[in-house]
Amino acid sequence: MVISGIAVAIPSWSGEQHSPDARSLVLALSAGIAVASTGLGGQDVRLDRTGSLPWAWIRAVHALGIGMAAVTVLLALQVTTETTTLLVIGRAACGLAGLAAIGAAVFGAAFAWAVPFAWCAVAYFVPPSGDRTVEIAAWMFQPADAAPSTWMSAALLVTGLVTYATAGPRPSVLAR
Length: 176
Known about the structure:
With 176 residues, the chain is mainly α. It is 67% helix and 0% strand.
């Protein structure tokens, strides 16, 4: 997470008045979330399911924490101070954390990174358009005032948190 944040922050530290655009910040954010998403599984998923702890809440906080940690790294590096860019980063962090949680529940923690990475890779090459379908498909790269993008991010976050909190990570093939 820190390495991708530093890579984006270096041009702004060079003394020039260069502020990275939202697209490069979202790419760094998705890289950080993809790396951290592999931690969404415990050492033994079957043992976690038998524990007496309230795992649903712990899992939900864990998934939210991944998104918050990635945003915190970018904010700590002071890559931007523009409010609209911060709103785009926050929306992207919520949606990408939800995608990582969905990935952990469906594919397991080892492959949880694939879902946010794949969506970000495809959405990066979608050309900008005023079409509502494009705003939904490429929600993470839309301007801060795009309502469909915000709703898509919120829907992914809620779906991911509910899925991951209730089902937990999928057991790995090696654990069977």
